[in-house]
Design goal:
By secondary structure, the protein is of the alpha/beta class. A hairpin with a 6-residue loop joins strand 4 and strand 5. The N terminus is likely disordered. The radius of gyration is 18 Å and the shape is globular. The chain has 10 helices and 5 strands. The longest helix is centred in the last third of the chain and has 19 residues. The protein has a 5-stranded mixed sheet with strand order 2-1-3-4-5, sandwiched between helices. It has a single domain, classed as Carbonic anhydrase (Beta-carbonic Anhydrase, Chain A). It binds zinc ion. The site of zinc ion (ZN) has 7 residues, from helix 7. Zinc ion binds next to helix 7.
């Protein structure tokens, strides 16, 4: 299956000039049809951050050509990045990165955690959809991370979320500054580290480099900054 996918990729490798044109179109918010080759991971990250700058500056495309884009991607999806974000209603990736239908492959769980289902989804995105950029987005005032920081009792499956975030809280301890913000940053970093360490490696599935980054979304300013 993977081999069948990789063969067309090699064939498309010479189409990078055409791809650059497509990426250029996306910057201006134009409708973009399915790309014929994967977008390089670092280029994809830049495209996300450019979209976030538009959003944070309140210059996001307020009237996206949704119907046209729906038609353009109905037969085939070629998202240029995968986002692992919190399920929090305020951090919708398509909105905060100013993207459209078909642009982002999104996985959302409270506390932006990844389990076997999420990792399998990412493997699919890389191996079959050509994604070369994965960004884990933590955010300001995250309730799930907040619950782990406060150390209170959690019931039901929420307990599993809190337990999974505790290592990040422990790593963030004693770093000074805002305890919740530090824990959110560590939690996103740890999720990114888990994705990097997962087998089969995404880079192996891609047959080349996959950019895996973590970031912090500021609810007040609307800005996303990549964690160092
Ligand atoms: Zn959250």
């Amino acid at each position: 299956m993977l081999r069948r996918f990789l063969t067309p990729l090699t064939a498309y490798a010479t189409g990078l000039v055409a791809l650059t044109t497509l990426v250029g179109c996306a910057f201006s918010g134009a409708v973009v049809g399915p790309a014929s080759a994967p977008v390089d991971g670092k280029v994809a990250l830049g495209r996300l951050l450019d979209g976030n700058r538009r959003y944070a500056a309140a210059s996001a495309s307020s009237s996206k050509p949704l119907a046209a884009q729906r038609a353009a991607v109905a037969q085939k999806q070629t998202p240029f990045a995968a986002i692992v974000a919190c399920a929090d209603s305020r951090v919708a990736p398509e909105i905060i990165f100013d993207q459209n239908l078909g642009d982002l492959f999104v996985i959302r769980t409270a506390g932006n955690l990844v389990d076997a289902y999420a990792l399998g989804s990412l493997e699919y995105a890389v191996a079959h959809l050509g994604v070369r950029c994965v960004v884990v987005v933590g955010h300001e005032r995250c309730g799930a991370v907040g619950a782990a920081v406060s150390g209170g009792h959690a019931e039901g499956h929420v307990k599993a979320l809190v337990e999974a975030i505790k290592p990040a809280v422990a790593r963030a301890k004693g770093r000074g500054g805002d305890a919740l913000e530090a824990a959110v940053i560590e939690n996103a970093r740890l999720t990114a580290a888990k994705i990097r360490a997962s087998k089969p490696a995404l880079s192996k599935l891609a047959g080349g480099e996959v950019t895996i980054a973590s970031a912090y979304y500021d609810l007040d300013s609307g800005t996303v900054r990549v964690n160092p």
